[in-house]
C-alpha cells in the first residue's frame, strides 16, 4: 500500500490496517452498490416502462450510492468497489499484488452477493430475451465511458484533491449513464449483472464482450493520466508500497 506524504483520494488512510479488514470494506461496499442498482432496476421496471424514466433512475441511483460509499469507506480501503481502479493502481506501482488480488476477489464476490440478495428480496424476474444490440457500438461506448471514469478517478488522485473524488465520480457516472445507459464501467458489476434479475440483467455472451472493452478503456485512461500528470522520481519513490 502507498505511503503518500500528501493526502489524496482512493487510498486507505492507514495501510497498516490488516488486509482482511480493508478487503472486507471493498466487499461490503461493492455488495451495497450492486444491491441498490439491481434493486432500483427491478422496482422502477415495475412502476414504468418509460425508457427515459428508467435510465434517469438508474443513473442517479448509481451516482448517489457510489458517492456515499466512497465517502464512507474511502479511509478504510480507498473506496474502489471496481477492479479496474485497483488494477490500475497496481500497474502504477501504488499497490502490491497481494492486496490487488484480495481487493478484486472481494469486489467480485460482494457484487455477486449483492445481486443475489436483491433478487431474493424483490423476487425479480430475469428477462427471457434481451433487446438486440450492436455489440461493436456497445463496446466502443463501454471503452469510452470507462476511460472517462478512470481519468476522473486518477486525475483527482494525482491532483491530490482528497475530497473531490467521490463527488467527481458520482457526477461522471450520472452523466455517462444518462448519455449511454448500456454502460457498466466496472467488471465487478458486469459479473454481478450476469446473476441479476430485472433490467440490469446481462447475458453472459454480452458480458464477455464488454469486459475487454472496459480493460481497453482503463489502459487508455492510464496512458492519458501518465501524460497529463508525469511523476517526479521523488513522487514515485514516495508512493511505493510500504507493507503487504
TrEMBL record:
Transmembrane found in the keyword field: yes
Subcellular location: Endomembrane system
SUPFAM superfamilies assigned: Aquaporin-like
Residues passing through the membrane, by range: 23-42, 54-74, 101-123, 135-157, 169-195, 207-229
Mode of membrane association: Multi-pass membrane protein
InterPro entries to which the protein is assigned, alphabetical: Aquaporin-like, Aquaporin_transptr, MIP
Keyword vocabulary terms for this entry: Membrane, Repeat, Transmembrane, Transmembrane helix, Transport
Domain of life: Bacteria
Pfam families associated with the record: MIP
PANTHER family in UniProt: AQUAPORIN-8
Protein family (similarity comment): Belongs to the MIP/aquaporin (TC 1.A.8) family.
Record-given protein name: Aquaporin
Species name: Rhodanobacter hydrolyticus
Amino acid at each position: 500500500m502507498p505511503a503518500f506524504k500528501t493526502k489524496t483520494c482512493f487510498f486507505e488512510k492507514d495501510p497498516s490496517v490488516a488486509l482482511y479488514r480493508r478487503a472486507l470494506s471493498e466487499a461490503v461496499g461493492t455488495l451495497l452498490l450492486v444491491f441498490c442498482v439491481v434493486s432500483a432496476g427491478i422496482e422502477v421496471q415495475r412502476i414504468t416502462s418509460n425508457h427515459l424514466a428508467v435510465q434517469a433512475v438508474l443513473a442517479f441511483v448509481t451516482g448517489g450510492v457510489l458517492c456515499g460509499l466512497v465517502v464512507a469507506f474511502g479511509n478504510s480501503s480507498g473506496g474502489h468497489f471496481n477492479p479496474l481502479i485497483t488494477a490500475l493502481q497496481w500497474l502504477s506501482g501504488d499497490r502490491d499484488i497481494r492486496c490487488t488480488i484480495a481487493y478484486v476477489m472481494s469486489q467480485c464476490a460482494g457484487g455477486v452477493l449483492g445481486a443475489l440478495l436483491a433478487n431474493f428480496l424483490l423476487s425479480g424476474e430475469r428477462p427471457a430475451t434481451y433487446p438486440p444490440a450492436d455489440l461493436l457500438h456497445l463496446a466502443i461506448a463501454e471503452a469510452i465511458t470507462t476511460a472517462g471514469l478512470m481519468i476522473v478517478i486518477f486525475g483527482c488522485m494525482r491532483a491530490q484533491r482528497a475530497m473531490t473524488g467521490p463527488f467527481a465520480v458520482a457526477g461522471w457516472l450520472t452523466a455517462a449513464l444518462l448519455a449511454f445507459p448500456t454502460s457498466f464501467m466496472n467488471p465487478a458489476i458486469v459479473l454481478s449483472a450476469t446473476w441479476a434479475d430485472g433490467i440490469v440483467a446481462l447475458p453472459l455472451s454480452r458480458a464477455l464482450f464488454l469486459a475487454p472493452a472496459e480493460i481497453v478503456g482503463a489502459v487508455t485512461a492510464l496512458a492519458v493520466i501518465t501524460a497529463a500528470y508525469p511523476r517526479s522520481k521523488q513522487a514515485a519513490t514516495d508512493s511505493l508500497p510500504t507493507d503487504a
